[in-house]
Amino acid sequence: MSSIRSSIFEPLAVEVHIRQEKASSLRRTGENLEKLITELGQIEIELRTLSGPPRAGRVKFYQQMRADAEYQRWCLVVQREAMGLWNHSEVDLMYRIPPAVKQ
To answer: What superkingdom heads the lineage (predicted)?
Structure first.
């Protein structure tokens, strides 16, 4: 009887697969966000040496990438909440989006 009772509490194969897909999606979103943050940091350094029209073009690109990073962070938070993770302080510490840059 104990083997029957324990099987009731074991997740179905489809449930295991869904959990794996959620975790994989969360990982991919985090990796995308990390790449964007790294690229933003590199562009931020580059902007220190630019002026005039070249700077304006790079600032515009930076702003677009920063908006993408903010969207990816939002997606990460939504995915975490869908998994029952409500405290996002780790996200704030791990994924610091650089500040906005002015022309």
So the answer is: Bacteria
Convert the chain into a string of H (helix), E (strand) and C (coil): CHHHHHHHHCCCHHHHHHHHHHHHHHHHHHHHHHHHHHHHHHHHHHHCCCCHHHHHHHHHHHHHHHHHHHHHHHHHHHHHHHCCCCCCHHHHHHCCCCCCCCC
Q: Domain for residue 8, yes or no?
A: no
pLDDT tens for residues 69-101?
999 999 999 999 988 999 999 999 999 999 999
Span 12-29, pLDDT tens digits? 889 899 989 999 999 999
- Domain range holding 48? 26-94
Stated pTM of the model: 0.83
Number of domains in the chain: 1
Answer yes or no: are the C-beta atoms of 87 and 25 closer than 8 Å: no
Asked if residue 1 belongs to a domain, the reply is no
